[in-house]
Amino acid sequence: MATITRSTPNPKVTAAVNPIVKFFIRRGWGMVARRLMVLHWNGRKSGQAYSTPVSRYELDGRLFTQTRAGFRHNFVGGHPAELVVDGERRPVVGTLVDAPDLVAQRMRDVLAEMGPDQGSQALGVKIDGTPTIDDLTRYVTDEGVALLDFTAA
Known about the structure:
Blueprint: E1 3-6, H1 11-27, H2 30-35, E2 36-42, E3 49-55, E4 57-59, E5 62-67, E6 79-85, E7 88-97, H3 100-114, H4 116-123, E8 125-128, H5 133-143, E9 146-152
Antiparallel strand pairs: 1-8, 2-3, 2-6, 4-5, 5-9, 6-7, 7-9
């Protein structure tokens, strides 16, 4: 049984660094632009425009991110948005995937694709041992992790 713990930066640090991160992503510069993308969307109820850097994963031609953030609920059933990927802004439809078994499987795929060290860093977790699908499912359920799948609009 592997131990999986959340490993995310301090929210104050994130808030201070986000404008710089967005700058690099919009220009497609460096490792930041390869690991992150900027998600632009309007709130489903408020209509307010939002923009935030999110993790970037691409497996089998599928672009997605993982999140615990409350904004994910805007994407239930699909919601139009835009992504800045490699310095290019493109329209997408984001769809919330919150079934723990599906989220756990995608995390497992990221770990297999990137390797345990880079994969766990990209997923924002620390893993002691080799996680089983049950370990990942338990983590996803306990932490409320979901995915946003993106398809071209």
